[in-house]
Design brief:
- The chain is 69% helix and 9% strand.
- β2 and β3 form a beta hairpin.
- The longest helix is centred in the last third of the chain and has 25 residues.
- It is built from 7 helices and 3 strands; from the N terminus they run αααβααββαα.
- The chain has a single domain, classed as Arc Repressor Mutant, subunit A (Orthogonal Bundle), CATH 1.10.10.
- One of its GO terms (molecular function) is DNA-binding transcription factor activity.
Length: 140
């Protein structure tokens, strides 16, 4: 089996695990938007920044914002820096909705980290970061 096929198979096996299916919500859809805003330094983000960070269209961001706003998981406020723009912030309800999902992911990776040990965990994180950097530069 070629190196590329081995890599595809290993990543495929990893992505089939239940924990990774649970993690998918952090990179796509409503939870991804909530998590991105939660992680931001200012605890608020513009739709433009959300679109850029999630790699989705502004139209998709607008649909997510409308849905999350209807569910009262976010607030929308006019930007103080640019009155033509607005910022998205989590509501207390949004934070209550997001926290258990974060805690579940943290608990899972805490166990994985304990089972691997600090040294292997550090190596794994380093390899993941390196793969991310390499893959960002690859176009086919």
């Amino acid at each position: 089996m070629s190196d590329s096929n081995q890599l595809i198979q290993a990543l495929s096996n990893l992505m089939k695990l239940g924990a990774f299916k649970d993690l998918k919500i952090f990179v796509e859809g409503e939870v991804a938007l909530l998590f991105l805003v939660y992680q931001s330094e200012e605890k608020m983000m513009s739709p433009k920044d959300i679109a850029a960070n999630l790699g989705i269209s502004k139209g998709r961001v607008t649909a997510l914002i409308n849905s999350l706003s209807e569910k009262e998981l976010i607030d929308i406020a006019i930007s103080l820096e640019d009155r033509r723009s607005f910022n998205i912030m989590l509501t207390p309800l949004g934070l209550d909705y997001l926290k258990p999902k974060i805690q579940k992911a943290e608990a899972y990776f805490s166990v994985v980290s304990q089972l691997l040990g600090k040294e292997k965990t550090d190596v794994l994180v380093s390899i993941i970061n390196e793969i991310t950097t390499v893959m960002e530069g690859v176009t086919i």
